[in-house]
Design goal:
Blueprint lengths: L1 H14 L6 H6 L21 H62 L7 H20 L2 E3 L12 E8 L8 E6 L2 E3 L2 E4 L1 E7 L13
Parallel strand pairs: 2-6
Antiparallel strand pairs: 1-4, 3-6, 4-5
Helix pairs in contact: 3-4
Length: about 210
């Protein structure tokens, strides 16, 4: 019996299943370097480096697109502004040339000759009014000077007078009308200006 047990024990290792050898490990397919480790339930997946690079490129392209859109909008506004300024400059040149015509109408209507019939001046007034209305629609505006204080930005003084009862630097007479074009000075008004009387008197004529 003992001999049979020894023989049986000697045969047991031969009946065991095949074990993993070094050859089996070498033949196993290597895991991909880009394959992310997966935790329980599929969590913990890492983003491949290629995806991060793609996102960065997309963000950069989007920023470039925004800059190009802003540059295009600025160019459009600048072109529109230059076009408007060019049109306004052309109108300004024409209106400036028409100002002496307005001056002529005003002088003719103020100094009426006795021998000229009234209908003639009525016709002149009608033409003058129509011309003034056309220029006003283009932005021409006559400046009011009577009773105003002298402002070197809008007035040109050609004479000073001492007039009791007037404020110092008060405009007492307008010799040529001044105009603005769309709130910008087109031609200064030519005026006479009151100055403080000599002898230390105030504008009211009372000595200090």
């Amino acid at each position: 019996m003992e001999n049979e047990k020894e023989q049986l024990a000697a045969r047991l290792p031969e009946d065991r299943g095949p074990s993993n050898t070094s050859d089996d490990k070498e033949n196993a397919a290597p895991a991909s370097e880009d394959t992310a480790a997966v935790g329980p339930g599929g969590a913990g997946i890492e983003t491949p480096p290629a995806t991060d690079k793609l996102k960065e490129e997309m963000a950069e392209l989007y920023q470039r697109l925004l800059r190009k859109q802003a540059e295009l909008e600025n160019f459009r506004k600048r072109a529109q502004r230059e076009k408007e300024e060019s049109r306004q400059y052309a109108a300004e040149h024409l209106i400036r040339d028409l100002l002496p015509v307005l001056d002529g109408f005003e002088r003719a209507l103020k100094q009426r000759a006795p021998g000229v019939s009234e209908p003639f001046y009525q016709g002149m007034e009608l033409i003058y009014r129509q011309l003034s209305e056309v220029l006003a629609r283009e932005g021409l505006e006559a400046m009011e000077t009577r009773g105003q204080l002298f402002d070197p930005h809008y007035h040109q003084a050609v004479e000073t007078v001492e007039e009791p009862g007037r404020r110092d630097q008060e405009i007492v007479e307008e010799l040529q009308r001044g105009y603005k074009l769309k709130h910008r000075l087109l031609r200064p008004a030519i005026v006479k200006v009151a100055v403080k009387p000599k002898g230390g008197e105030s504008p009211s004529g009372v000595k200090r």
